[in-house]
Amino acid sequence: MDLVLPDMDEVSASETISSAYGLRKQVLSPMETLAQSISAIAPSTSAALTVPLVFALAGAGTCVAYLVAMTGMMLVALCIVTFAKDSASPGSLYVYARDTLPPKWAAVTGWSLVFAYIMTAASVIGGFTSFAYVLLGRFGGHFAPGLVAAVAAICATAVAYKDIQISARMMLYIEGISVFLIVLVVGLTLWKHGLHFDSGQFRLRGMTPSGVRLGIILAVFSFVGFESATSLGAEARNPLQSIPRAVIWSTLLSGLFFVGCAYGEVLGFAGASTSLSDSTAPMRELAARAGVGYLGPIIDVGVCVSMFAATLAFVIAIARLLMLMAHDGLVSRVLGRTDERHHTPALAGLLGGVLAYIPAGWLVQRGASGAEVYGWMGSLAVFGYLLAYALVALASVLHQRQRNRVRPRTIVLAAAATLAMIGVAIGTLVPVPPSPYRYFPLLFGAFLVAALLWHLRPDRSDA
Predict the structure, then answer these.
(1) 4 CB contacts (<8 Å, ≥6 apart)?
(2) Can you tell me the distance from the alpha carbon of 306 to that of 222, in angstroms, rounded to the nearest whole number?
(3) 246 near 31, Cβ under 8 Å?
(4) Radius of gyration over every alpha carbon of the chain, rounded to an integer in angstroms
(5) What is the tens place of the pLDDT at every residue in 256-308?
(6) I want to staple 96 with a disulfide (CB 3.0 to 4.6 A). Which of 19, 83, 343, 425 is the partner?
(7) How many secondary structure helices (H) and strands (E) does the chain include?
């Protein structure tokens, strides 16, 4: 009987959640659950856009920056898993905080994640716009930037509304093909250079501490969204098993991929006429230098579609988070409704898609490049993630205490994860970064204050 009880508990938990929120129950396989986190991370997008941005700051220390970021994210992932093994819900990390922390801090976690997910969706919409123009070439002048950004937002919102299972499968196939081609190009690059160890990338010579520090911050952005599989608690099969595995494996596999790409790209661009930080299509150039130039355009197509998949993943996460927050009275209860035909939170998903498009569409239409929008919105999103991750790491100790499972390693893990997030946060503030980055903490703070005032309003129970 002891071997059967866990599965019975998972089925019971999933049925309860499904009946309460109107979502389709147990439709996603473990691979499809993993696809949600992998697509939110969008590994191929980071290889093409984020690694060059990190290189612009950290130089040859780009690989080191990713190793440090990977370590910090693995600490947070292990804290999240302590919750994911015990409960399954569509509310992502917000539910973990709600069930453990005081209500005000749970609200802070929820609103931080809403902010982070919306800004990340806006970021990848900007990335989609950037690579769409790379693919359109001279024909790109016929299409307004705001229109190109709208294509990503509208299509992602429509797919997320129709069917969560179709969405997950699409994301898995798209990202899988893109990552395979990038690994092939990076592997050929290493082969061409004789498979020797480039120790210069780890000596940190000629690199400033501030550059590496800022590079680590951007490297952390490559990982954000790894926890988004936790928003599929009602729809995943065996959620108490598949979701923890998705959180850990998405972080570990993506981290190894990022480190490998950072190492290979820095090595591949050594001595090139164009710097890695100045390249608009680094994988295309790397493929040409590796002797497989015909793969470059294919990878660019994959990266562009991967950014659409990331937009889709975050619209899905936003919708489910808002749906649960609506049931708790933190937002209008209208957003808690699910479509009777498709069993998806349609209104919450529509709102998420619109909110993601507004900053991205406005900025590109006013002349900002898609790459700039990707960097700006991504840097802004990091603040929401850092606060939510730190709070959940602290909450993991209380969660284990409620179950009489606190061990010294539990406290050490939570402390290490929290300090890592605090360290990254301090790195974004000291010394004061240049404009517009210096204003991002203020924007996040203003959003959080407004959200908390909404949470504390007298008529909140009637929301």
Answers:
(1) none
(2) 13
(3) no
(4) 21
(5) 999 999 988 888 888 777 788 877 778 888 888 878 888 888 888 888 888 88
(6) 83
(7) 18, 0
Residues 6+ apart with CB under 8 A from 256: 70
Q: Tell me the C-alpha distance between 310 and 371, whole Å.
A: 15
Reported as a pLDDT band with limits 50, 70 and 90, residue 15 is: very low
Task: Determine the average pLDDT of the residues in 434-447.
Answer: 87
For 340-358, the pLDDT digits (tens) are 676 678 788 889 899 999 9
DSSP-derived secondary structure letter, 238: S
Long-range contacts of range 49-52, CB-CB < 8 Å, 24 or more positions apart?
49/127, 49/130, 49/303, 49/371, 49/374, 50/218, 50/219, 50/221, 50/222, 50/378, 51/258, 51/261, 51/262, 51/265, 51/276, 51/282, 52/265, 52/276, 52/277, 52/278, 52/279, 52/282
Find out whether 383 and 389 touch, Cβ atoms under 8 Å.
no
Q: Is 457 exposed, middle or buried (0-12, 13-18, 19+ CB in 10 A)?
A: exposed
The answer to whether the pTM exceeds 0.85 is no
- Which phi and psi angles does 381 have, rounded to 5°? -65, -30
Amino acid symbol at 266 = V
CB-based contact 75:248 (threshold 8 Å): no
Cα–Cα nearest to 60, from 254, 271, 299, 281:
271
- Helix 51-58 to helix 209-223 angle, to the nearest 10 degrees? 160
Percent above pLDDT 70 for the chain: 85
> Which residues does 136 contact at the CB level (< 8 Å), separation at least 6?
143
Residue 79 or residue 432, greater confidence: 79
- Candidates 63, 110, 111; CA nearest to 91 is 110
More confident residue, 15 or 145: 145
